[in-house]
Design a protein that fits this description.
The chain has 141 residues and is an alpha/beta fold. It is built from three helices and seven strands, in the order βαβαββββαβ. It has a single domain (3-140), classed as DNA polymerase III subunit chi (Rossmann fold). It has a seven-stranded parallel β-sheet with strand order 3-4-2-5-6-1-7, with helices on both faces. It is globular, with a radius of gyration of 14 Å. The mean pLDDT is 89.
């Protein structure tokens, strides 16, 4: 059964979720784990792809979009809508809903922005995970 970590951002709008996701990816890679980041749309996935290349010049986070052909295995894959990758350790959910395939991951991360809409969505996700019997943790970020 997956463990779910909620990260509550102190300020900023939903775009801060993407920057925080980049920071989490650094930590996940340092633990030699693989991450799958799920967004709602291809445009959001592309935005995150661009951000991962540029968010910290001294950091290299090998990643790709889900439909990208690569010659090597990457540790971070970004998907959207109904496209997903099951062969990862951590699901970073940046979509509005909890994806149907979430239970195939050992760890799930929800990043909650400080705005009221994100908080309401986070509360709904918390209730859904709790009702499913998952172990839940909250972190101030």
């Amino acid at each position: 059964m997956p463990k779910v970590n909620f990260y509550l951002l102190k300020n900023g709008q939903s775009s801060e979720q993407y920057v925080f996701a980049c920071r989490l990816c650094e930590k996940i890679l340092s633990q030699k784990l693989k991450a799958y980041i799920h967004t709602d749309t291809q445009e959001q996935a592309q935005y995150l792809d661009d951000l991962l290349w540029s968010y910290r010049p001294e950091s290299f986070l090998p990643h790709c979009l889900i439909d990208t052909e690569t010659d090597e295995e990457v540790s971070i894959v970004i998907g959207y809508a109904d496209k997903f990758l099951e062969k990862s350790d951590v699901l970073i959910n940046l979509s509005q809903d909890i994806p149907d395939f979430h239970a195939s991951f050992s760890r799930i991360v929800e990043i909650i922005a400080a705005d009221d809409e994100s908080k309401a969505q986070g509360r709904l996700h918390w209730k859904q995970y709790k009702d499913a019997g998952y172990e839940l943790e909250t972190h101030e970020a």
